[in-house]
Write a structure and sequence with these properties.
The protein is α/β, with parallel strands linked by helices and 263 residues long. The chain has helices at residues 51-61, 92-103, 120-127, 187-194, 197-200, 229-232, 243-260; strands at 2-13, 19-30, 36-42, 65-70, 108-118, 146-149, 172-177, 203-208, 222-226, 235-239.
């Protein structure tokens, strides 16, 4: 029998200025011996809003610990595109600090930790897969797997500082929707085509038909305005829950981490 223990935690991060980041840690209390794998979860521009919990529940049921972090509260920012930091690069130290904290938990196998995120958190997830980001990780072991949901696909190899040309070698799964107003319907396919062969070999892409940005956000529909939308031209973005895509993405994520974080 496995029981989930939830704890609210906080830990320092090497962001500029130095911050203390809070998060929700779910670990396994099991009759079976041995530490479990773990996954760091990074929210989108709207902050912690239920998407992380949706995926964490399935990961926990699969015997994977989770740590969902709150990158906004430590910065005193309101939620949304207008209040977030200038670049996801600024929040990369939060992800690596979360990995170190998760690795220190006795219930977690420090060698089997992955990361996933949504939109802004998806960008953080992909940047954490780059060799350049390892400088922020103090050369500690890299994440073992990366799952990015709708991470603004048009921007990579286009916006300075957003490149997937040099990856750590850990597997990457990108999931997007063909009705996402940040990108063209085939935006994920375009991203994969831009990657050099060595990166393309590590990245799998899945596009969910009919799904828009935030398709796994089980909240009332809303329209946001983001300068990064519509391939950088800016404008409105409709966010609506797509139950079929959400369930499919959650299953794909669990299956991915089961394989990527295997002993």
């Amino acid at each position: 029998m496995t029981t989930i223990r939830s704890s609210y935690v906080a830990f320092p991060t090497a962001a500029e200025p130095a911050l203390t980041v809070a998060g929700k840690l779910n670990t396994m209390l099991s009759d079976a011996s041995g530490a479990t794998p773990g996954v760091v979860i990074c929210h989108g521009s709207d902050g912690v809003d239920g998407r992380g919990e949706f995926h964490a529940a399935a990961l926990n049921a699969a015997g994977i610990a989770t740590l969902e972090i709150d990158m906004w509260a430590a910065r005193g920012t309101a939620r949304g595109a207008a209040a977030r930091p200038r670049s996801p690069v600024e929040t990369l130290p939060d992800a690596f600090a979360a990995k170190r904290f998760l690795a220190a938990q006795p219930e977690v196998d420090a060698a089997r930790i992955g990361i996933m995120g949504f939109s802004w958190g998806g960008v953080v997830t992909l940047l954490a897969a780059t060799a350049a980001a390892q400088a922020l990780n103090d050369q500690a072991p890299a994440f073992r797997g990366h799952v990015a949901l709708y991470p603004v696909c048009w921007a990579y190899e286009v916006v300075p500082g957003l490149s997937l040309a040099d990856l750590t070698g850990a597997p990457v799964l990108i999931q997007a929707g063909d009705a996402d107003s940040y990108d063209d319907p085939d935006g994920l396919d375009q991203l994969l085509a831009r990657l050099p062969p060595q990166s393309r070999a590590r990245v799998r892409g899945v596009t969910h038909p009919g799904a828009g940005h935030g398709f796994d956000r089980d909240l009332p529909e809303q329209t946001i305005v983001d300068p990064f939308a519509h391939k950088g031209r800016g404008g409105p973005v409709r966010m609506a829950f797509h139950p079929e895509a959400a369930r499919a993405a959650r299953t794909l994520g669990v299956d991915f981490f089961r394989e990527a974080l295997a002993g």
